[in-house]
Design a protein that fits this description.
alpha/beta, five-stranded parallel beta sheet, three-stranded mixed beta sheet, 26 helices
């Protein structure tokens, strides 16, 4: 699905269509189909469905008027007021604007698909021509309704309630959708929309009108998505993007940014201090949150991107039970708390477990739906993928499903390439116990990586136990009658590190044998503060690991850039957002550049470069090795089982 070209939707062209849209709101005529009339009378939601099906008891078509119903609602909800309340007005206006845009989209499809000329010569069409005419008519109607609903959802997203579950429970679905002609499509949709609005159970307040409108038009989009596979002549829909002049709004094929994505997922609140060990991971997480918070909503970019300290994709890896899920929750908690304090919209957007579909193409579609919201520049987005090896495992491995391959294809397309939009407001985190099982191309997209290794020191284990037994202390103070350590205050080591150097304690040489051998070999000819040292080291590494590429070198470069921006934002910036966070982009950028300069004075570039190269190459080797070692172990295990089975079988004779 390549969206190659972008076409503008001009405001003055919309102005010419607004009267037509208004006329539909004033009155449409619709005759219900037999199926909609005879809806199952025993259904649980019968009151509403029956009400809808009996909208006109004696057959024949009926005229409905949305604008009239809204006026009646106003009388019912606010009998005293003279003006139409704001929310009713806004909703009515939104529907008018949605219809206007839908009509424009339909006209555009008529011209692009050749439907206009078919319609002009309709009387002279042969059978094939008539079939094409009818088929394109249905596609035009579907696309028009989709664009209308999409625009309505876009305009109401900040007006409607965050939680629509109550309204969704009242809603019994749309009894029928007509795609015969654009006029019938609009008439049918507005007919049912109007019937629902008139039902006393559905609307109890003016807020309900906005909420119901969102629920109804979301359902309309779902209905069209279900039918889109049977539509023909859609290439002039999927190959382009229509962008509304002076607005963020765009229609890009059948893509729906709002699908299931608009709402943050609930998570348990966890502070970094409650996580034992994992210094590297906690430090990384803290830097990530500070960087995301620096995003500028006006300029739609992040000063850290320019300074080279932002990671759109990162990876945390470690053995099971070291706190991956806790870490995800802690990052989300920290971001949410700061966002609430700074009044910034935040989306916690974990990848759902149910992404891989058994249907051909289904997984790709779900993955696009999941990745689409990451391109929304209007909020900060943290998108963790827990147990990433399940959905992003090595594509060449035996038995990998088609679904996994589809998901990886979409992931790669959206993280680099024509689709990859990165404003510096969203970050995807891969969390895994088995990094060696991840697809190589996926791993190469990772720009920041850290170990999640849990408790490591005497103090870590002391603290882990302390977090557990202090709960008894709260209920029965003298119950835990054991002696504490003399020179250590509990949780003292669990605070955050000042910078990466403090954690690495100057890692000296590679620990992995083959990397060490290559390192030593190159060190004979060059000094580590010579550029040629690295050029030759990379060449040697490539001989050992053929998959090591320029992408890896870029990742090493971004790891070094991260170290150069490895400084704390000033405390008072958080306490008083006006000092930094609320400033314009240029000011923020210059403030950060000053901090960076001050930070760089204490650093040795050659040493940092050496540390990061050693760290990265060790990592590459570990991942490559573990995979091989696992396969060998599995094979040995299998042979042992077979041998044991033979021995036992021999004893039976």
């Amino acid at each position: 699905m390549e969206h190659n070209s972008t076409f503008p939707i001009k405001q003055n062209e919309l102005d010419m269509l607004r009267d037509e849209a208004t006329s539909y709101i004033k009155s449409v005529q619709w005759e219900q189909g037999q199926r909609a009339k005879n809806r199952d009378k025993d259904a649980a939601d019968e009151s509403i469905l029956l009400y809808l099906s009996r909208a006109k008891g004696n057959g024949g078509s009926e005229v409905t008027s949305v604008s009239k119903t809204i006026l009646e609602l106003k009388k019912r909800l606010l009998p005293e007021s003279i003006a139409i309340p704001v929310l009713l007005n806004q909703t009515l206006y939104t529907i008018q604007e949605g219809l206007t845009l839908g009509i424009w989209i339909k006209d555009s499809y008529y011209d692009a698909s050749g439907l206009s000329s078919l319609a002009e010569n309709r009387s002279a069409l042969d059978n094939a021509g008539k079939r094409e005419y009818e088929s394109k008519m249905q596609t035009a109607t579907a696309f028009m309704l989709f664009a209308t609903a999409y625009k309505i959802l876009h305009d109401l997203q900040n007006i409607a309630s965050d939680d629509l579950s109550v309204m969704k429970n009242k809603f019994a679905g749309i009894p029928e959708v007509s795609l015969m002609t654009p006029l019938k499509g609009i008439s049918c949709a507005l007919f049912y929309y109007d019937k629902y609005l008139g039902h006393p159970e559905i609307i109890k307040s003016d807020k309900d009108v906005a909420d119901f409108t969102v629920v109804f038009f979301e359902a309309l989009i779902d209905e069209i998505q279900l039918r889109k596979s049977s539509l023909e002549y859609t290439e002039t829909i999927t190959d382009r993007t229509y962008k509304l002049e002076n607005s963020e709004f765009a229609v890009s094929g059948w893509d729906n940014v709002f699908q299931g994505a608009a709402k943050s997922v609930e998570f348990n609140k966890i502070q970094f201090e409650q996580i034992v060990g994992n210094r590297d991971a906690k430090h990384f997480a803290r830097r990530l949150t500070e960087r995301m918070l620096s995003y500028d909503f006006e300029a739609k970019k992040n000063p850290f991107q320019e300074l080279g300290g932002f990671m759109p994709v990162f990876m945390g890896y470690g053995i099971p039970g070291t706190g991956k899920s806790m870490l995800i929750a802690a990052i989300a908690t920290r971001l949410k708390e700061h966002c609430d304090h700074l009044d910034i919209p935040f989306l916690f957007h974990p990848m759902p477990d149910t992404l891989i579909s058994t249907f051909q193409g289904g997984s790709a579609e779900k993955m696009v739906e999941w990745m689409k919201p990451l391109q929304d520049p209007s909020r900060l987005i943290f998108a963790p993928i827990d147990d990433a090896e399940n959905n992003l495992q090595e594509r060449t491995a035996q038995g990998v499903s088609a679904g996994v391959k589809e998901v990886i294809g979409v992931f790669l397309r959206y993280t680099e390439g024509a689709y990859a939009v990165n404003y510096g407001n969203s970050s995807i985190g891969l969390f895994t116990n088995l990094p060696e099982m991840l697809d190589k191309a996926v791993i190469s997209r990772v720009q920041g990586r850290f170990k999640i290794d849990g408790a490591r020191t005497e103090h870590d284990f002391l603290d882990q136990d302390h977090l557990w037994w202090r709960k008894f202390d709260d209920t029965m103070p003298d119950f835990v009658n054991m002696q504490g350590p003399e020179n250590y205050a509990y949780l003292q080591d669990q605070g955050l590190a000042k910078n990466m150097g403090e954690i690495l304690k100057l890692s000296d040489k590679p620990t992995e044998e083959r990397v060490l051998a290559a390192y030593d070999k190159v060190e004979h000819s060059f000094d580590t503060n010579q550029h040629l040292f690295y050029a030759n080291l990379y060449k040697e590494i490539q001989k050992i690991f053929p998959f090591f590429s320029s992408r890896d070198v870029r990742n090493i470069q971004s790891a070094i850039s991260l170290r150069l921006t490895d400084f704390d934002l000033e405390e008072d910036w958080f306490e008083n957002p006006d000092i930094y966070f609320k400033k314009d982009y240029e000011t923020k950028f210059n403030m950060l550049r000053e901090l960076m300069r001050a930070n760089m004075k204490g650093l040795d570039f050659a040493e940092i470069r050496r540390q990061e190269v050693v760290r990265y190459l060790d990592n590459v080797a570990t991942i490559a090795d573990t995979d091989f070692k696992r396969k060998v172990d599995a094979r040995i295990n299998q042979m042992n089982i077979e041998q044991e089975a033979r021995d036992q079988f021999g004893k039976l004779d």
